[in-house]
Amino acid sequence: MVDPRVPAKERLLVAGAIVYAFMPLDLIPDMLPFVGQVDDAYLIALTLLRLMSVTEPRVVREHWRGGGDVVELIGATALIAGRLLPKKIRRVLTSRVEAAKAPAGKDQVMAMPLLVERPAAESKTV
Q1: Is 2 part of a structural domain of the chain?
Q2: How far apart are CA 3 and CA 37, in angstroms?
Q3: Using CA atoms, how far apart are residues 17 and 41, in angstroms rounded to an integer?
Q4: Is 89 in contact with 39 (CB distance < 8 Å)?
Q5: Distance (Å, rounded) from C-alpha 116 to C-alpha 122?
Q6: I need a labelling partner for 24 at 20 to 30 A (CA). Which of 9, 108, 109, 120 fits?
Q7: Do 49 and 94 contact (CB within 8 A), yes or no?
Q8: In which domain, by residue range, is 29 found?
Q9: What is the reported pLDDT for 94?
Q10: pLDDT score of 37
Q11: 120 belongs to a structural domain
Q12: Taking the model in full, what pTM does it have?
């Protein structure tokens, strides 16, 4: 939150997502076990994906104190939580976190979406 390599707008968005997670009343109330926390995890993961789209992923990795690769963890969390949420709620949360604008000097919005949901591969029995 204090790293000068991270734009102030991105810091505010991450802080807002964390505050949303602690609010008792949101799109899916936290009083509902498991499902109430899934929307919070999804929104936080989306804001962190957005943050990594405008800053170097190594910056996020430098501040990670947990195990494993934080970039992979964030992506996996967003995909899993997105699949557990109803489509309407997923659309509302996704629309709140738009793709970040391209770095200074470029006038276009980044062409790559924050989260791409790929169809599940068909399981084959051997």
Answers
A1: no
A2: 28
A3: 9
A4: yes
A5: 18
A6: 9
A7: no
A8: 8-96
A9: 77
A10: 85
A11: no
A12: 0.68
Number of domains in the chain: 1
Q: What is the 3-state secondary structure (H, E, C) of the chain?
A: CCCCCCCHHHHHHHHHHHHHHHCCCCCCCCCCCCHHHHHHHHHHHHHHHHHHHHCCHHHHHHHCCCCCCHHHHHHHHHHHHHHHCCHHHHHHHHHHCCCCECCCCCCCECCCCCCCCCCCCCCCCC
Distance, in Å, from the CA atom of 52 to the CA atom of 105, rounded to the nearest integer, reads 19
Q: Token digits for 20? A: 């949303």
Task: Give residue 101's pLDDT.
Answer: 57
Residue 113 to residue 27: CA distance in whole angstroms:
23
Residue 47, domain member (yes or no): yes
**Residue 90 within any structural domain of the chain:** yes
Weakly modelled stretches of the chain, pLDDT under 50: 106-113, 123, 126
